[in-house]
Amino acid sequence: HKPRIAVxxxxxxxxxSAEELFSGLQSxxxxxxxxxxxxxxGKTISQQIPKIIDSPxxxxxxxxxxxxxxESLDCKGRAGYYDDSGVFRDMLQNHATELLLLLAAGRSKxxxxxxxxxxxxxxxxxxxxxxxxxxxxKATSTPTFASVLLFSSLPEWAGVPILLSSGxxxxxxxxxxxxxxxxxxxxxxxFKPPRITFMGENVLADDITIxxxxxxxxxxxxxxGNNQLLPxxxxxxxxxxxxxxxxxxxxxxxIHPDNxxxxxxxxxxxxxxxxxxxxxxxxxxxxxxxxxxxxxxxAIYEHVVHDLVxxxxxxTAEEAIHVAISGGSTVLGLFKHLLQVEMSWERVxxxxxxxxxxxxxxxxADLQFFLAEEVNGLMNVHLLPVSPGEGCGVxxxxxxxxxxxxxxxxxxxxxxxxxxxxxxxxxxxxxxxTLHSTxxxxxxxSPDPSVSPHRLTASLDLISRSRRVVVVVVGEGKRTxxxxxxxxxxxxxxxxxxxxxxxxxxxxxxxx
Length: 512
Fold this sequence. Notes:
Blueprint: E1 5-8, H1 15-26, E2 34-37, H2 44-52, E3 62-70, H3 79-102, H4 109-115, E4 124-129, H5 132-136, E5 145-150, E6 162-167, E7 174-181, E8 186-191, E9 194-198, E10 201-202, H6 214-224, H7 233-247, E11 253-256, E12 264-267, E13 270-273, E14 291-295, H8 297-314, E15 321-325, H9 330-338, E16 348-352, E17 354-356, H10 364-376, E18 380-382, H11 396-406, E19 414-418, E20 441-445, E21 454-458, H12 460-464, E22 468-473, H13 479-486, H14 493-496, E23 502-508
Parallel strand pairs: 1-2, 3-6, 4-11, 14-23, 15-16, 15-19, 16-18, 19-22, 22-23
Antiparallel strand pairs: 3-7, 4-5, 5-6, 7-8, 8-9, 9-10, 12-13, 17-21, 20-21
Helix pairs in contact: 1-7, 3-7, 4-7, 8-9
């Protein structure tokens, strides 16, 4: 018999360390005699996956794939080892990835791995159970939970969201592979207890004996030279190539209570948790009881874009969504994130809610409107009809008519407002008589002599009729606004903003 080597995972700590490991092993023995052992592949249920994935009665095309390896146990007693690995290296790079590969019957592991997209930070959610640092004995940012959203270029998986998740100290043990088909049918492959069900009906053959020891199965395979399901050196390096890119991403660590799930869901090509860390900060009784988030400026933009994508996704396929964005520097950062997302842009009507009436110079945000139109190609962009000087209001009547025609409800679904250093929103300035106007759009004036005095703006009444209004307070110059809110100053226009359903404040944490 030829000598063989069986190596149990982990196969290195990264691609470079795996290459070093394999190079050392191949100096002793040929590569074809090296067997990489992942005990999940020795489970009876795992070995049935390639046989059954094509057999549930022609269910049609796949619409979603989920691999979940959730554990109720925490890391107490083994935190020293775990803190060097974390959930990515302990569970996702190996067990979860190998289970995914079993679903691609007839494809080589390397081919499938190379087809997978490299996710961005909006497609990864990480968490840590609350007592983990106590178990480690020090403060640590090692994730004990992660969900990763992938996509594949394989024709049979084109556009299919692939969600790989694992976590410690979850509410319950849940180790399963779930495949949802466009027909609505669901194939579930569970490991604890062992089961394979299709539409709730058992499809595991009666003559299948569930092995209680996966290592025995795998070692028998090594002895007989059967490495059909096992990882290979090339597939392991391809897997590390993917996971190194994921591990290197910046992650916002969500701390969650012990033995509690961190709810994660897919929105378009985003992956979000509905329990993102939010620090309620009562600025004043005016906004107590409303939703207030404190975070960095970049994180605030991400929060807002996530929320907007969610709002659009929740509408029906035929329903138009009317979004309003004010001008000014605040939205420039927001558009950098907004232009990167994929959602049903053809359903979105984007309305400009304020503009300066200056010859040849439009609001800085206007450039972003045009950029959005150019990049996405599907957005319905509605720009305010500006003219210089006293002619500023020309065309406003037609604009109002278009608004009513396209939006019979005469209210926005979603409004994003920046805030000026004097507390103005849109072009609604302190002590202006236009604050009380019941018109939807109006010609107003800026009190600042250094800029064009003539403006067009949506009214406070129209903004406050909107279903959801988001107020974004970022930038060092807004500290005075926050201080005045704390002191109970109700005269600032931003303090008068309301919403029909939900008003959300996002305040840069450095300002509080």
